[in-house]
């Protein structure tokens, strides 16, 4: 049996939910969109859903131009017996809310969490993009892929691997080559030309003004209420500074501090660093090269400043020791 055959065999409902993480990015959206098409071919209807918000402009353009139907948790009602397939995230991750339905399957490329609840899982942390796993399902099952799905999946791979330069495995490269030939090049080009809005430039200005260097560690607080997407983008941006190979970028939002971490050091695991740094106060995790975390329940300026300083010091100490 192929992975797709295994997945289909464990589903008992004619309709399932495909759940993305709380702030869906291009890879999560592409993976859910591709999986929805595969399920449809096998006679299973599905609803793509998430909790939180989509706050990156080019992700919104994907939804618009590729006509992807997705639903926030406020827009549908789920029952306890409904079946959920998780994509690009797992239960136990800080950015995956626990919906009421049964989490029967998981397709992901992040480090493996607890998997006992799933009837099926395909979790390969050595792969750079979840979209590559979905693309492989099309290939190994000899299923024709539409231009729209190919466009979405190739863009998901492109973005999560930073143009195949970050954590790109042989599978990512092979699947991107396969998909790119079938994708709409004009739409892909259009996505790249709408990644920033004018207000985002203020956050970049804050990052440049507030950047602090500790050895090869770059840390920047970029103001309040910055989107998940822009925090991650600035973390990537600061990693291009020649003196930096580890970045910590954060913003105060939704009652807490949101952190984004990047590492180019072979001895420093970004996911482990942020998880340990937030231990006892919040939660975090991710890949060795890119990770995120959240520290909740901060209400006063003094609390925010004190906790920000503590997390900075914990990160600096761990990175310097590594």
UniProtKB/TrEMBL annotation:
InterPro entries: DDH_dom, DHH_sf, DHHA1_dom, Oligoribo/pAp-PDE_c-di-AMP_PDE. GO terms for molecular function: nucleic acid binding. Residues 16-157 form the DDH domain. Residues 217-315 form the DHHA1 domain. PANTHER family: BIFUNCTIONAL OLIGORIBONUCLEASE AND PAP PHOSPHATASE NRNA. This is DHH family phosphoesterase.
């Amino acid at each position: 049996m192929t992975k797709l055959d295994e997945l289909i065999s464990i589903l008992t409902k004619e309709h399932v939910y495909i759940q993305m993480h709380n702030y869906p990015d291009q890879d999560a959206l592409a993976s859910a969109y591709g999986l929805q098409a595969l399920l449809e071919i096998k006679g299973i209807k599905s609803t793509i859903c998430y909790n939180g918000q989509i706050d990156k402009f080019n992700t919104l353009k994907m939804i618009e131009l590729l006509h992807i139907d997705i639903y926030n948790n406020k827009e549908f009602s789920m029952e306890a017996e409904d079946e959920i397939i998780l994509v690009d995230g797992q239960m136990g991750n800080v950015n995956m809310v626990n919906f009421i339905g049964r989490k029967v399957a998981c397709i992901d490329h992040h480090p493996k969490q607890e998997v006992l609840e799933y009837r099926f899982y395909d979790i390969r942390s050595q792969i750079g993009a979840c979209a590559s796993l979905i693309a492989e399902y099309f290939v190994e099952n000899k299923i024709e892929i539409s231009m729209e799905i190919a466009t979405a999946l190739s863009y998901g791979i492109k973005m999560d691997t930073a143009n195949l330069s970050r954590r790109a495995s042989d599978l990512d490269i092979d699947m991107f080559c396969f998909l790119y030939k079938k994708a709409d090049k004009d739409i892909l080009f259009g996505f790249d030309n709408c990644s920033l809005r004018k207000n985002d430039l203020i956050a970049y200005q804050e990052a440049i003004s507030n950047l602090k260097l500790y050895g090869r560690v770059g840390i920047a607080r970029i103001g309040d209420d910055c989107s998940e997407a822009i925090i991650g983008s600035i973390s990537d941006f600061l990693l291009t500074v020649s003196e930096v190979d580890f970045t910590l970028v954060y913003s105060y939002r939704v009652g807490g501090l949101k952190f984004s971490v990047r590492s180019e050091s072979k001895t420093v695991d970004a996911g482990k660093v942020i998880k340990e740094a937030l231990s006892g106060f919040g939660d975090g995790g991710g890949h060795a090269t890119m990770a995120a975390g959240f520290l909740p329940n901060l209400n006063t300026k003094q609390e925010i400043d004190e906790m920000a300083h503590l997390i900075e010091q914990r990160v600096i100490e761990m990175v310097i020791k590594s």
